[in-house]
Amino acid sequence: AWIRMAWRIDAAQALNAGLRFVGEQVLDNDWTNVAANGRRLAAYQTVDLRYSYRMGNSEFALAIDNLLNHAFTSYAGVVTAGGNAGRLFFYPDALRTLRASVGVRF
User: Across the chain, how many H-helices and E-strands are there?
Assistant: First the structure.
């Protein structure tokens, strides 16, 4: 679930803030939900911010994802074949991330 807010500072500037909530998840490849012995990915939430400035047909933006630097994992699974069958694997998500972008409208 997302909650987002946008504030148009003036005709050229905008500030956006968002709160994302993701509930508990089962692991990939655990079709019966028993291979991982009931283990699930924990619920998590992130706060994201974005500032943008428009100049003519261009937009310049800076964004901060996961502002509060919360450690979480949004993908994990169970190995189903080979010598590692039954083992779990996890891919942790990025901590606080700064992004910059430039867009041009035609």
Answer: 0, 7
Give the tens place of pLDDT for each residue, 12-32: 999 999 999 999 988 888 777
Map tokens 């409208």 to a residue.
Answer: 105
Q: At a CB cut-off of 8 Å and minimum separation 6, what does 105 contact?
A: 57, 58, 59
pTM for the model stands at 0.79
Residue whose pair of structure tokens reads 């974005």 in the numeric block: 50
- The residue among 53, 24, 63, 20 whose CA lies nearest residue 40 is 24
What does the angle CA 55 – CA 58 – CA 64 come to, to the nearest 5 degrees? 95
Read off the pLDDT of each residue in 78-98 and give the average, rounded to a whole number: 88
Distance between alpha carbon 30 and the CA centroid of its chain, in Å? 23
Q: Where are the alpha helices (DSSP H) in 1-106?
A: none
Residue type, 104: V
pLDDT, position 37: 75
